[in-house]
Amino acid sequence: MITIAIADDHTLLRKALVNLINDFEDCQVVVEAGNGQELIDQLKGRKELPMVAILDVNMPQMDGYATANHLMQHYPTLSTLSLSMLTDEAHVLKMLHAGVKGYILKECDPEELHNAIIYASKGEYFINDLMTVQIGRGIAALNTPNSKHPLAYGDPIPQLTEREIEFLQWSASDFTYKEIADKMRLSPRTVDSYRDTLFEKLQIKSRVGLAIYAIKNKFVNI
Protein backbone atom coordinates (compact mmCIF):
# COMPACT_ATOMS: atom_id res chain seq x y z
CA MET A 1 0.00 0.00 0.00
CA ILE A 2 1.31 3.42 -1.00
CA THR A 3 0.78 5.88 1.84
CA ILE A 4 0.27 9.52 0.90
CA ALA A 5 0.28 12.98 2.45
CA ILE A 6 -1.60 15.87 0.84
CA ALA A 7 -1.12 19.62 1.39
CA ASP A 8 -3.61 21.92 -0.35
CA ASP A 9 -5.36 24.99 1.04
CA HIS A 10 -8.54 24.49 -1.02
CA THR A 11 -10.63 22.36 1.32
CA LEU A 12 -13.22 21.09 -1.16
CA LEU A 13 -10.59 20.14 -3.73
CA ARG A 14 -8.43 18.50 -1.07
CA LYS A 15 -11.35 16.42 0.23
CA ALA A 16 -12.23 15.35 -3.31
CA LEU A 17 -8.60 14.45 -3.95
CA VAL A 18 -8.45 12.37 -0.77
CA ASN A 19 -11.57 10.45 -1.81
CA LEU A 20 -10.21 9.91 -5.32
CA ILE A 21 -6.85 8.61 -4.13
CA ASN A 22 -8.41 6.36 -1.51
CA ASP A 23 -10.44 4.76 -4.31
CA PHE A 24 -7.19 3.52 -5.87
CA GLU A 25 -6.71 -0.05 -4.66
CA ASP A 26 -3.03 0.45 -3.76
CA CYS A 27 -3.16 3.96 -2.24
CA GLN A 28 -4.20 5.47 1.07
CA VAL A 29 -4.06 9.08 2.26
CA VAL A 30 -2.70 9.13 5.82
CA VAL A 31 -1.95 12.84 6.27
CA GLU A 32 -4.10 15.79 5.18
CA ALA A 33 -3.04 19.42 5.62
CA GLY A 34 -4.13 22.89 4.51
CA ASN A 35 -0.58 24.17 3.91
CA GLY A 36 3.05 23.14 4.09
CA GLN A 37 3.55 24.11 7.71
CA GLU A 38 0.56 22.02 8.81
CA LEU A 39 1.96 19.08 6.86
CA ILE A 40 5.39 19.37 8.47
CA ASP A 41 3.84 19.69 11.93
CA GLN A 42 1.88 16.48 11.37
CA LEU A 43 4.90 14.59 10.09
CA LYS A 44 6.87 15.38 13.26
CA GLY A 45 4.59 13.26 15.37
CA ARG A 46 4.38 10.24 13.10
CA LYS A 47 6.20 6.99 13.78
CA GLU A 48 6.06 6.04 10.09
CA LEU A 49 6.35 8.54 7.26
CA PRO A 50 4.09 8.45 4.22
CA MET A 51 5.79 7.37 1.00
CA VAL A 52 4.60 10.25 -1.18
CA ALA A 53 3.63 13.87 -0.46
CA ILE A 54 1.41 15.70 -2.96
CA LEU A 55 1.88 19.47 -2.71
CA ASP A 56 -0.01 22.42 -4.11
CA VAL A 57 2.31 25.16 -5.36
CA ASN A 58 0.52 28.21 -3.96
CA MET A 59 -0.39 27.84 -0.28
CA PRO A 60 -0.50 30.28 2.65
CA GLN A 61 2.13 30.21 5.43
CA MET A 62 4.36 27.76 3.56
CA ASP A 63 4.06 27.24 -0.18
CA GLY A 64 4.84 24.14 -2.21
CA TYR A 65 8.36 25.23 -3.10
CA ALA A 66 9.41 25.83 0.53
CA THR A 67 7.64 22.66 1.64
CA ALA A 68 9.33 20.48 -0.99
CA ASN A 69 12.69 21.96 -0.03
CA HIS A 70 12.10 21.23 3.65
CA LEU A 71 10.96 17.67 2.99
CA MET A 72 13.97 17.01 0.77
CA GLN A 73 16.33 18.21 3.50
CA HIS A 74 14.67 16.58 6.51
CA TYR A 75 12.79 13.60 5.05
CA PRO A 76 14.81 12.49 2.00
CA THR A 77 13.02 9.13 1.75
CA LEU A 78 9.68 10.89 1.21
CA SER A 79 9.09 11.54 -2.49
CA THR A 80 7.13 14.64 -3.48
CA LEU A 81 4.79 15.48 -6.34
CA SER A 82 3.49 18.90 -7.32
CA LEU A 83 -0.21 19.20 -8.16
CA SER A 84 -1.10 22.63 -9.50
CA MET A 85 -3.12 24.74 -11.92
CA LEU A 86 0.05 26.59 -12.99
CA THR A 87 1.55 25.46 -16.29
CA ASP A 88 4.41 27.88 -16.96
CA GLU A 89 7.94 26.56 -17.30
CA ALA A 90 9.30 28.70 -14.47
CA HIS A 91 7.08 27.05 -11.85
CA VAL A 92 7.88 23.57 -13.18
CA LEU A 93 11.63 24.26 -13.03
CA LYS A 94 11.40 25.79 -9.56
CA MET A 95 9.53 22.79 -8.18
CA LEU A 96 11.93 20.33 -9.85
CA HIS A 97 14.82 22.18 -8.26
CA ALA A 98 13.03 21.84 -4.92
CA GLY A 99 13.10 18.08 -5.37
CA VAL A 100 9.68 17.04 -6.70
CA LYS A 101 9.48 13.87 -8.78
CA GLY A 102 6.68 15.10 -11.01
CA TYR A 103 4.50 18.09 -11.85
CA ILE A 104 0.87 17.40 -12.71
CA LEU A 105 -2.20 19.52 -13.27
CA LYS A 106 -5.26 19.50 -11.05
CA GLU A 107 -7.34 18.85 -14.16
CA CYS A 108 -5.43 15.67 -15.02
CA ASP A 109 -7.13 12.30 -15.49
CA PRO A 110 -7.25 10.03 -12.42
CA GLU A 111 -5.09 7.50 -14.26
CA GLU A 112 -2.32 10.06 -14.73
CA LEU A 113 -2.43 10.95 -11.05
CA HIS A 114 -2.30 7.27 -10.11
CA ASN A 115 0.70 6.67 -12.37
CA ALA A 116 2.48 9.71 -10.92
CA ILE A 117 1.99 8.37 -7.39
CA ILE A 118 3.34 4.95 -8.37
CA TYR A 119 6.45 6.44 -10.00
CA ALA A 120 7.11 8.78 -7.07
CA SER A 121 6.71 5.95 -4.54
CA LYS A 122 9.62 4.21 -6.29
CA GLY A 123 11.74 7.36 -6.22
CA GLU A 124 11.38 7.80 -9.97
CA TYR A 125 10.47 10.84 -12.05
CA PHE A 126 7.02 10.92 -13.57
CA ILE A 127 7.26 12.13 -17.14
CA ASN A 128 4.05 13.57 -18.58
CA ASP A 129 3.05 15.85 -21.45
CA LEU A 130 3.00 18.94 -19.24
CA MET A 131 6.67 18.57 -18.39
CA THR A 132 7.37 18.15 -22.14
CA VAL A 133 10.35 15.94 -21.49
CA GLN A 134 10.40 14.46 -24.97
CA ILE A 135 13.53 12.34 -24.55
CA GLY A 136 12.58 9.85 -27.26
CA ARG A 137 14.27 6.51 -26.69
CA GLY A 138 15.66 7.64 -23.35
CA ILE A 139 12.52 8.13 -21.24
CA ALA A 140 12.90 4.73 -19.57
CA ALA A 141 16.64 5.23 -19.10
CA LEU A 142 16.03 8.41 -17.13
CA ASN A 143 14.50 6.31 -14.35
CA THR A 144 17.02 3.48 -14.50
CA PRO A 145 19.17 3.23 -11.35
CA ASN A 146 22.76 4.36 -11.97
CA SER A 147 21.95 5.46 -15.52
CA LYS A 148 24.23 8.32 -16.52
CA HIS A 149 22.42 9.57 -19.58
CA PRO A 150 18.99 9.34 -21.23
CA LEU A 151 20.20 7.47 -24.30
CA ALA A 152 19.38 4.04 -25.60
CA TYR A 153 21.54 1.14 -24.43
CA GLY A 154 24.75 0.93 -26.45
CA ASP A 155 24.87 4.61 -27.40
CA PRO A 156 28.12 6.40 -26.55
CA ILE A 157 28.07 8.56 -23.43
CA PRO A 158 28.09 12.19 -24.61
CA GLN A 159 31.18 14.23 -23.79
CA LEU A 160 30.26 17.67 -22.48
CA THR A 161 32.55 20.68 -22.43
CA GLU A 162 32.97 22.77 -19.28
CA ARG A 163 30.82 25.54 -20.76
CA GLU A 164 28.11 23.09 -21.77
CA ILE A 165 28.09 21.73 -18.21
CA GLU A 166 27.88 25.27 -16.85
CA PHE A 167 24.93 26.01 -19.13
CA LEU A 168 23.30 22.72 -18.12
CA GLN A 169 23.58 23.75 -14.46
CA TRP A 170 21.97 27.13 -15.14
CA SER A 171 19.22 25.41 -17.13
CA ALA A 172 18.00 23.73 -13.93
CA SER A 173 17.35 27.16 -12.39
CA ASP A 174 14.33 29.38 -13.03
CA PHE A 175 16.41 32.07 -14.75
CA THR A 176 15.37 33.02 -18.27
CA TYR A 177 17.73 32.26 -21.15
CA LYS A 178 18.60 35.96 -21.31
CA GLU A 179 19.47 35.98 -17.61
CA ILE A 180 21.55 32.84 -18.07
CA ALA A 181 23.42 34.59 -20.88
CA ASP A 182 24.16 37.48 -18.50
CA LYS A 183 25.33 35.08 -15.78
CA MET A 184 27.65 33.31 -18.21
CA ARG A 185 28.74 36.62 -19.79
CA LEU A 186 27.70 35.38 -23.21
CA SER A 187 25.40 36.65 -25.92
CA PRO A 188 21.84 35.22 -26.04
CA ARG A 189 22.69 33.71 -29.43
CA THR A 190 25.65 31.80 -27.95
CA VAL A 191 23.46 30.49 -25.14
CA ASP A 192 20.89 29.34 -27.70
CA SER A 193 23.71 27.49 -29.44
CA TYR A 194 24.68 25.69 -26.21
CA ARG A 195 21.03 24.76 -25.67
CA ASP A 196 20.61 23.35 -29.17
CA THR A 197 23.88 21.41 -28.93
CA LEU A 198 22.80 19.82 -25.64
CA PHE A 199 19.39 18.97 -27.07
CA GLU A 200 21.19 17.05 -29.82
CA LYS A 201 23.88 15.44 -27.64
CA LEU A 202 21.48 14.30 -24.92
CA GLN A 203 18.49 13.57 -27.19
CA ILE A 204 16.35 15.96 -25.16
CA LYS A 205 13.88 18.42 -26.63
CA SER A 206 12.95 20.73 -23.77
CA ARG A 207 14.54 22.81 -21.03
CA VAL A 208 12.67 20.83 -18.39
CA GLY A 209 14.33 17.73 -19.82
CA LEU A 210 17.72 19.39 -19.42
CA ALA A 211 16.85 20.26 -15.82
CA ILE A 212 15.91 16.69 -14.95
CA TYR A 213 19.08 15.41 -16.63
CA ALA A 214 21.20 17.89 -14.64
CA ILE A 215 19.51 17.02 -11.34
CA LYS A 216 19.56 13.25 -11.82
CA ASN A 217 23.21 13.22 -12.89
CA LYS A 218 24.20 15.55 -10.03
CA PHE A 219 25.42 18.42 -12.15
CA VAL A 220 23.40 20.52 -9.70
CA ASN A 221 22.89 19.95 -5.98
CA ILE A 222 19.33 20.19 -4.68
From TrEMBL:
Domain Response regulatory: 3-121
Domain HTH luxR-type residues, every copy: 153-218
Example GO biological process: regulation of DNA-templated transcription
Keywords for the protein's UniProt record, in alphabetical order: DNA-binding, Phosphoprotein, Transcription, Transcription regulation
CDD domains: LuxR_C_like, REC_NarL-like
PROSITE patterns to which the protein is assigned, alphabetical: HTH_LUXR_2, RESPONSE_REGULATORY
Modification sites for 4-aspartylphosphate: D56
Protein name in UniProt: DNA-binding response regulator
Organism: Filimonas zeae
